[in-house]
């Protein structure tokens, strides 16, 4: 069977979900984005075993998480633009192959340095395939089926996020932690050929010819340098101080470049919307707390409570299961009562869940101590995440909804990686803290109130700044969501001959 014909900008996509081609498109996009989503959740569970096997310090474990997040957060806005210009299927398949090759390198890593470098390469692949999978759905399906296709994509992705920690724990305790990464290879061997055979190519011939590569590089560099400075700050060396200054300078340069470029990756004028700016500040607070919490909790359950990797992964399931079951209903409630109350109450519930985690120590009972904290945390995320996405979309004009979602997603990932870098320092964790149950438990008990405090700040910001959106504003299509590392990406409307508006950017940023 020959590859499907290319869909060009201005042609009306005609694929229906009920057709074989529609089912193949859903399969390959779910598999592709699922790889990246799984890796963002399963690795935490594997960290203690990775540390023991590779004789890694706590800082090296932090980098194992953050190297992936630095490149993913820094480049995800650029990834969608590349697909618009060069072909969405082509860039998506490139991302899948790149991700699989980096996963192979992770699985074969002889030492922690190679593992960290391979994780950074994984993040580049993730930045290509994550927005690409959603853009393929938006560009391929008939308008009547598009919302349902996006909903199925986000729902299956949420299931993958929920299964991730359980699957990761099973692999770590069974064939070994390397299979957490090697599992991506057979998935890619299915995903890429199916995409090439069954998914129609699409692009936007009217997309701009230039790309904000400099802006993307400066953004990723700033995140990397600041992350390094935070992780190594306990050494107090001159190199750390110089790196911190260089990171701030790179961040300033990023802002200058974005302000001056005619087609920036992140147009700064979008922040002229005070509601959009305020909601992104709330996002920074809540996802910084989430990032620190999930990083440390996976370690606490294994190092202090004594769980196996499988038990720790299974223990974390209630939070994501609650999000999968009730996120859509939470979004509907927020539409009726407005986002201010959910965005205030949600972080406060999450803060309560984190404080309940103070009961989780040596000899803790899962039913009495661990489960109540996870349920309260999950309830808070249910109340919070869907209204957060809806408010982001409602804060800007419809033409920029995809860009707004991409910026919000990148902000959440950046907040999480900075929290993973800074929280062990603020909590007084030493380089070998995870090897001692007593030392790690003491630091964990200092870290949870810090995370709860950041959530309270987020709740206060939401209460003071968030207002009810206009009744005709854009509503989220990704109504079912289970990922704990970032809010869902939302698609941009695909133009057709009947549209009078100019072509829009891809789901994760402008074609710049």
Automatic annotation (TrEMBL):
It is found in: Cell membrane. One of its GO terms (cellular component) is plasma membrane. Its main location: membrane. Keywords: Antibiotic resistance, Cell membrane, Membrane, Transmembrane, Transmembrane helix, Transport. Residues 497-512 have a biased composition (Low complexity). It is a multi-pass membrane protein. Residues 475-512 are annotated as: Disordered. GO terms for molecular function: transmembrane transporter activity. GO terms for biological process: response to antibiotic. The chain crosses the membrane at residues 24-47, 59-79, 91-110, 116-137, 149-171, 177-199, 211-231, 237-257, 278-299, 305-328, 340-358, 370-394, 406-427, 447-466. Residues 25-470 form the Major facilitator superfamily (MFS) profile domain. InterPro entries: EmrB-like, MFS, MFS_dom, MFS_trans_sf. It comes from the Bacteria. NCBIfam families: efflux_EmrB. PANTHER family: EXPORT PROTEIN (PTHR42718:SF42), MAJOR FACILITATOR SUPERFAMILY MULTIDRUG TRANSPORTER MFSC (PTHR42718). This is MFS transporter.
């Amino acid at each position: 069977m020959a590859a499907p014909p290319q869909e060009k900008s201005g042609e009306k996509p005609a694929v229906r979900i009920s057709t074989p081609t529609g089912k193949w498109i859903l399969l390959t996009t779910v598999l592709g984005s699922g790889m990246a989503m799984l890796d963002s959740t399963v690795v935490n569970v594997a960290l203690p075993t990775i540390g023991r096997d590779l004789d890694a310090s706590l800082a090296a474990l932090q980098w194992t998480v953050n190297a992936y997040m630095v490149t993913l957060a820094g480049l995800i806005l650029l990834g969608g633009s590349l697909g618009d210009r060069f072909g969405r299927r082509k860039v998506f398949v490139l991302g899948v192959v790149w991700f699989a090759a980096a996963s192979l390198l992770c699985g074969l890593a002889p030492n922690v340095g190679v593992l960290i470098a391979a994780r950074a390469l994984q993040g580049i692949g993730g930045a290509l395939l994550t927005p690409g999978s959603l853009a393929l759905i938006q560009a391929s399906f008939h308008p009547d089926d598009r919302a349902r296709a996006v909903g199925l994509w986000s729902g299956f992705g949420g299931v993958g996020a929920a299964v991730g920690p359980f699957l990761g724990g099973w692999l770590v305790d069974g064939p070994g932690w390397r299979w957490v990464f090697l599992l991506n290879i057979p998935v890619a061997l299915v995903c890429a050929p199916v995409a090439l055979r069954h998914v129609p190519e699409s692009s936007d011939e009217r997309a701009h010819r230039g790309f904000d590569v400099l802006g993307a590089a400066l953004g990723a560099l700033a995140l990397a340098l600041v992350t390094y400075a935070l992780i190594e700050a306990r050494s107090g060396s001159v190199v750390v101080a110089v790196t911190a200054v260089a990171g701030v300078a790179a961040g300033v340069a990023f802002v200058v470049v974005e302000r001056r470029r005619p087609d920036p990756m992140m147009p700064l004028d979008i922040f002229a919307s005070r509601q959009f700016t305020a909601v992104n500040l709330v996002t920074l607070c809540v996802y910084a707390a989430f990032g620190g919490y999930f990083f440390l909790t996976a370690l606490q359950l294994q190092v202090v409570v004594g769980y196996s990797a499988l038990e720790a992964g299974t223990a974390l399931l209630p939070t994501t299961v609650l999000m999968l079951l009730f996120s859509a209903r939470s979004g509907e409630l927020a539409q009726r009562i407005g986002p201010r109350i959910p965005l205030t109450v949600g972080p406060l519930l999450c803060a309560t869940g984190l404080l309940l985690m103070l009961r989780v120590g040596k000899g803790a009972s899962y039913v009495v101590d661990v489960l109540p904290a996870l349920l309260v945390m999950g309830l808070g995320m249910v109340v919070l995440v869907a209204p957060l996405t809806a408010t982001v979309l409602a804060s800007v004009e419809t033409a920029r909804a995809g860009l707004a979602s991409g910026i919000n997603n990148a902000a959440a990932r950046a907040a999480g990686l900075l929290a993973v870098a800074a929280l062990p320092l603020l909590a007084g964790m030493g380089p070998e803290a995870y090897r001692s149950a007593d030392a790690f438990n003491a630091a964990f008990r200092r870290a949870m109130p810090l995370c709860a405090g950041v959530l309270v700040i987020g709740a206060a910001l939401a209460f003071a700044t968030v207002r009810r959106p206009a009744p005709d504003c854009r509503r989220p299509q990704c109504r079912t969501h289970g990922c704990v590392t970032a809010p869902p990406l939302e698609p941009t409307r695909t133009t057709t001959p009947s549209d009078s508006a100019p072509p829009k950017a891809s789901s994760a940023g402008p074609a710049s």
